[in-house]
Fold each of these.
Amino acid sequence: MKVYYECGPCFIRQAKEAMDLATDDNELKINLIEDIFDFLADNYTQNASSNKLGSVIHRMIKEKTNCSDPYSKEKVIGNKIALEFLPMIEKLLEEDNSLENYIKIAIVGNILDFGALGLDFNPQEFILSNLDKNLAINQIDQFKEAISNHKDVLFLVDNTGEIVFDKLLIEKLIELGLNVTVALKEKPILNDACMEDAKSVGLDEIAKLTTIGTDSIGLIYDEASQEFKNLFDNSDFVIAKGLGNYEGLTETNLEGKDVFSLLCVKCSAVSKDIGIGERENILLKL
């Protein structure tokens, strides 16, 4: 996805939050924000890729504050919130165990995003308000057709916490006969899930785990490891969670693939890009 004008203020808001999490050194933060302003002045153009710019900014913050995981506490909070909701979610799935309901639950999990929504939003309230919502874009028929046409699926996860709900959908996909490979971040960025986060909720017990080989926001194909590129190139069925993966995949050659984006539309830029209202939940074939 190319940047929209409102991506600029969002980059600065995210940068401030990440710096506040990473360091208390005010002088360092002033120097860092100067560097970020300079970077955006040189690179913020209409044809710029939104998640490429965001990835550079967060890497600058991690490197210059010497904090490899600024969102480490938020990741723990995300898992805690998801696990608190799990009994309620499992009860809902007992009442309606349709594939569509598993998809809706996985998308509701995408709300656990401290990068897109900031540090001050109330995730519990947001989750509860979304549990009964219908999908604003619902391409479930195409999704079911892809399941019937493929034996393997590559599942690109997004955030820690969210992966608790993803696990439920992955178990459903396995029940339907699919072999699932889950792709995670190689190193921390924002509150995105890494290998240790996936293992902490038992994803390694049900699916094959791999990484994209880097710490980009979403998937930036050119930055991924050669091992992951080979896997992606040979994957005809891909499920991608979240805004970052949507942003990256819309910049990637998807010819000949069945690729589905599962997300909650959490910003006006993605809302404009898709043509759907903010805070809507969607299952979209890219």
Amino acid sequence: MSTGLSLADHITLEMRTDIIGGRLLPGMALIESDLVTAYNASRNTIREALHRLGQEGLTRYVRNKGVVVRRLGVDEVRDLFQVRRTLELQAIATSKPLREYQSDRMLEAIEATELAREREDWRAVGTHSLCFHQHIVGLMRSPLFDEFFTNIVAQMRLVFSAAPDEEHFQAPWLERDRQIHDLLAEGEKVAAQEAMSLYLDDSEQLLLDMLSHPSRH
């Protein structure tokens, strides 16, 4: 265990990671006794972790059901993309020439996305693509922004999980992630920003359309 983190911190991180990994899905009931076993922690620790996840917007209390993994609606999606534009476009705008280790991290995420697509694991495709965007925000080298964006990624994962056909949603983005990386690697910051801006516009529109007209997808 890393120092400075309580057990509740660790369980919160684990549960958030399970949301990002698509293992805890929107609408899923989080039953304390099951979580005690799954995460090998006391009820008090689980309760504290659930409280924190609620503060992060990842769980909510539903009457007669207890705590459930949150479903996000149109307004939340618009807000998430407002945050993503602010952080990801700013990260590119203020970035210095891409260092080898930064490029390597992005390429690893892209390669993991590609492998997941080959085995048609669409949930993993979405998770690895979000990891690529975490590395974009990481260009700012701000631990506070990194931590904040991890929560945004977890909420995005919940939106993806609501897609009736995740393959239809996830298929187009891999090449566009690669294009953004390549433009950054070539020092084409303005073009990378434009590509990212278009990417976020298109992604938001597709998700909003999906949430507004689920039967079409």
Amino acid sequence: MSDEFSRIARYFAPLAGEEGLGLANDAAVLKPPPGRELVLTVDQMLEGVHFLSGDDPALIARKLLRRNLSDLAAMGAVPMGYLLTTALPAGLPEAWLAGFAAGLAEDQKLYGISLYGGDSSSARRDISLSATLLGHVAPGTALSRGGAQPGDEIWVTGTIGDASLGLKARFGELTDPTGYLTQRSLLPEPRVGLALAGIVSAAIDVSDGLLQDLGHICRVSGVGAVIAAEAVPVSPQAAAFGADMLEARLTDGDDYELVVTVPPKHAGALKSACGALPITRIGHIVAGVGVEVHNEAGKTLRFGKAGWQHF
């Protein structure tokens, strides 16, 4: 494996924007767009926790960026660029680095972002990665988790549970004949570019499970939520596994869809803002605490967990 500086020059300097100064200095120099506020988010991916040892390095790189892009989407921010940190074990093949850099380059082009800088280090065994993404919003328009009010409707983009079942397929716990669920696990689709300011009262991306992440909105807003299990959108591929996978779909996470709360009078504006992106009403905000899931008969369903726990 090449040394640290030649690795940076070969694989990462070509990804740098002008703010990164060719990755030849101690820090980047960033000039925010005039009259805009900066939005920053950081996320990490660890081998054996967030990705498997044999995963395609290009897909690992793209998912690393997309997890952060999803956070920016949940704040209504326009992506700008990112800082990258890597801790890589000795002996990691050059082909892995080349694939990882190619994945970064692909999504940089797709989302109009560039590399500003970062840090590289060594790891004793497993790969450790993190990215800090920067975006911008008009002053005072950043979306938050804290504005939901009783009577607001709860909507979610896309479909929920595909990534969870895709991971099970990768572990051989179920079959995925089309590969669709596996792909959703490996490469999420962050919902960037939606003009939701002034329409939604609260927003969050679904990373740790729909119930848990919606619960974060409830906690910060000081409200409760009721959702209908049958209303939660499901892909045909996930629906094939029936009700047995309902808890996994609602609690395992890794969807990177958006769940938003919306005053009923803004429902039409929400649909217009989402355009061709499917968005589904799944419930409503109530006075109270926590999230309840009801079946078609109105009975409250109980689950063993609300979502992914890191500890």
